[in-house]
Amino acid sequence: MKATSIFGGVQVFNIIISILRSKIMAVLLGPAGVGILGLLNTTILLISSLTNFGLGISGVKDIATAKDSNDGSRLAKTMAVLNRLIWITGVLGSLITLFGAKWLSEVAFGNSEYTLAFVWLSITVLLKQLASGHFVLLQGLRRLKDLAKANMVGSGIGLLLSIPFYYYLGLEGIVPGLVITALATFLVALYFGNKIKKQSVPLSIRELKWEGKGMMTMGFMLSLSGIMVLGESYALRVFINYSGGVEQVGLYNAGIALITTYVGLLFTAMETDYYPRLASVASNNIKANELINQQTEIALLILAPVLVGLMVFIDWVIIILYSSEFLAVNVMIYWAFLGLFFKVPAWVVGFIFIAKGKGRLFFWNELISNLYLLLFNIIGYYYWGLTGLGISFLVSYVVYLGQVFFIARTKYQFSFQKGFSKIFGLQFVFGLLCLVGIKILDTPWMYILGSVLILLSGYFSFVELDKRLGLKELILGFFGKK
């Protein structure tokens, strides 16, 4: 519980930093600058993911296991192996970026103008991997306070140091800003990482191969899902840039951040509690079925009023988080928010594959879904621009929900209960009516209808949550303590 509260606070802090960074970028760089930044960042993230072999995941497990063995020599050797692998993979990613700079520029931007940018960004690939090595040690050794401080201080200093570059240099300050941010993160990670006592352990190449093979293999397999998501994201941004230019990429980045990052907080919060509970009952299909339905219903009840509210006031939200230059993305967001009604149940049901330890099934499920998500996005943008991306998001998650439901029903006898159908049907109608109202009504009637729909959705959610969680008692108890 203590660890959860620590990282809950870190997450909130990082979100605040993310919002501030997005606002600053939007005001100082505009859609074109945000688009360039997005293409550079996505390229570097993809290279890092392909070359770091998931050491940020497998390394934590191996360090924690070695620590729990109470064998000092084993822990020292595991730390030494991890350190060598971090350096090797970091240098590998950096060299690929350095020597492939011209090619990366041509792929991402359609020209060689950003070759020098990628040459400089090769430094960030190395710095990020070295920083992750220190984060892995802190997490594996359960030095959670130091890990939390490192995350928060690194994010804060990185933002503060990058602002002058964007303010004085504009678009020319993007690359220096990224480099200085990576350097700040590394130095902070190094400071906290050096608090850990390390033994000097001789390590031959043969030992490194033997000890490191398992760590790298497992890490790469665990990171495949993330690589697929990054690959789809990168390919789509490149396509948008080729078809519509960097300003369109910037608008898309802003829209998708609202859809997946800020609204996605609910998914992140749920995962912390939901996955362990599902894993504990995964062997019992009946109990797993009940838990999945319960989690889906609660998630929809919490999210639906938020989505309806955001749809009504999305123009204000965009101006507050970005600027009026980004208002062109609002129609994409309307359609995508309808897609989130389908993403919620699909996401909750999809966890059953991981909980049951069906890694291969999970991999193929994610691979297929990412392929048609990319296909739908390309078709959508080609014919209808940013609006088409919102529609493709909706269509993709309708298909994905059908896909995971079919697999779960076939393999684990899963079925949705009547409670889910009632909640989903009514809340989706509220969202659909909101979209229709936005399309056909002028101000102030659109806001009047929208406000009514927010109240109806909120009231329905409150009543249903009270039935399931005793919400009234929780609220009264909270204020009673005050």
From TrEMBL:
Subcellular locations according to the entry: Cell membrane
Transmembrane segments: 12-30, 36-60, 81-104, 116-138, 150-168, 174-193, 214-231, 251-270, 298-321, 333-355, 367-384, 390-408, 420-438, 444-462
Keywords, ordered alphabetically: Cell membrane, Membrane, Transmembrane, Transmembrane helix
Main location per the UniProt record: membrane
Coiled coil region boundaries: none
Pfam families in the record: Polysacc_synt_3 (PF13440)
GO cellular component: plasma membrane
Membrane topology type: Multi-pass membrane protein
Superkingdom assignment: Bacteria
Name of the protein in its database record: O-antigen translocase
